[in-house]
Amino acid sequence: MERALCEFNSDGVTAFQELIDAERAKVKSSQPAKVSEDFFSKVRKLAGASALIHEVPSANQIDTSMVFDTRYDFGAYLNQSLPDDLSTVQYSNVGLWAWISAAYLPQLLKHSSRGNSHDLWSTYRYVPLAYSKFRYYRHLAFISFWLHRQLGETAARLFLSRPMYEHSDAIEQLYTSDKDFLTTPALLEVSVEMYLDAESGVMKKKALGKETPGSARRLATKVAKQLQMNFDMHSMTKEQVYSLLPAEFDDWKK
Asked: What pTM was computed for the model?
């Protein structure tokens, strides 16, 4: 169903956050709250309440009925649909990202293996809180969009090839580690080819191991930095990057 792209006003953000917090208060912080259709019905009412929202000026309509296989697909759609004006789509626009989370919330929660409940985790996954370098990238909707918008398709595929509701260990370990790695196209191409399974599209086992020889984590945090001291990595092709990688990467290159 296509509808106008909206933002929560301050009352809407508060109402959405209180709804989440009320469920989270029922369980330990290390456990997911179990929510069902009654909860989603309340969220839909908030997201459609004229007193709590307003339309984003000059924005395209957005299809809130779309279903996405992965966060990569979700981010690609948001990148295509949201305004080009960066001031509108920043993480600091709490009303926008809280409303988008509300609009797609059933997909952002894992369906429980038992019964019809869904797993609701910490609020910062759905409502942007005060900026923190340890939390902003955990907002499921925002970072799915932002990786596409700022770093492009290759980087987005590396970090977002996972279910809608699932946080990415690759984001935890690689996205925050080295901005040169993130902005070097050939390094990202090589990483996608070496560390993502060609059939499933998911990260290979041990690809993020801190001590695993040739792992993505070692490439981003150690080896790439060493290479960048002696080579202009930004001007290289992926074939040239492959030729510079030490022997510990041979098994991954296969």
From this structure: 0.91
